[in-house]
Amino acid sequence: MTDDVRVRVTAARQVAERVRELVLAPVNGTPLPGWTPGAHVDVVLADDLVRSYSLCSAPGADTWRIAVLEEVDGRGGSRHVHHTVAVGDELVTSVPRNNFELVLGDRPVLLVSGGIGVTPLLPMAAAADAAGADWRMLHLARSEEAAAYVDELAAYGDRVIRHVDTDGGPIDLAATLDRLGAADADVYACGPTPLLGALEEYAASRPGTRLVVERFAGDGDAVREGDHAFVVEIADGTEVQVAADQTVLEALSAAGIRVLSSCQEGVCGTCETAVIEGEPDHRDHVLSEEERASGEMMMPCVSRCRGARIVLDL
């Protein structure tokens, strides 16, 4: 990981059911790198265990804060945070990256959080409020026990609208969004895939809605029926065969070529790699349309090659 940041865990607490918060301070006294609302960092939890977490503290604070939902059936990162990481531990992170940038303008802003999706939206709420923007938040959770940062959000009064499924059942999302003015607003959303899918359907039916989403999971579309095999070449000339039912990341790892990765679903950007030659078949949720069209970068965890060969800067 380039531009490593060394941090120490100075506090830890449960902020909701299965959600643990860590406060991270710089080890050497050097101020932490700056960041903007919506940013995340890659955290090295152990050898070959790197995960991306949204920063949910206030930009400009002298510490960082992350909050992690324990995924019982996950790949081990959240379990490590909940059951192994302790106050006093030193960790290595990347510098903050932002694929979910808040842009404040003349339009109203609606923040929509589902479950642990509240984390990147907390600093957005703080920034929007400090700027005097016309903003509101829809804070959704399965139950009161699962709702994180309720007390913190209560400071914003009626700008934050809360709903828990155990209180009257699932929300009528479209009707609620209409009532909150989403049809003519910039909507920033983070949460589970079904929520984001429903928001995309809503935005498709409301031309005035500008929807920006942050995903925790991909669409499982890294390998598709009809995919073909191809060759990946790295900068030193080494060639690796990628089978039709294999991702680039899997093939490189099997060949002993290490690529830093986290989500392995094309949503975090950790494995972003420069393309020297060849045309990528983009399947990520990180790059913009302009970045995809340039063909200069790709996410080897999910993206492939349209031709027979692609050369990567590894």
From TrEMBL:
Keywords: 2Fe-2S, Flavoprotein, Iron, Iron-sulfur, Metal-binding, Oxidoreductase. InterPro entries: 2Fe-2S_ferredoxin-like_sf, 2Fe-2S_ferredoxin-type, 2Fe2S_fd_BS, Beta-grasp_dom_sf, FAD-bd_FR_type, FNR_nucleotide-bd, MRET, Riboflavin_synthase-like_b-brl. Its cofactor is FAD. CDD domains: fer2, PDR_like. Residues 2-103 form the FAD-binding FR-type domain. PROSITE patterns: 2FE2S_FER_1, 2FE2S_FER_2, FAD_FR. Gene3D superfamilies: 3.10.20.30, Nucleotide-binding domain of ferredoxin-NADP reductase (FNR) module, Translation factors. Residues 228-314 form the 2Fe-2S ferredoxin-type domain. This is PDR/VanB family oxidoreductase. It comes from Nocardioides ginsengisoli.
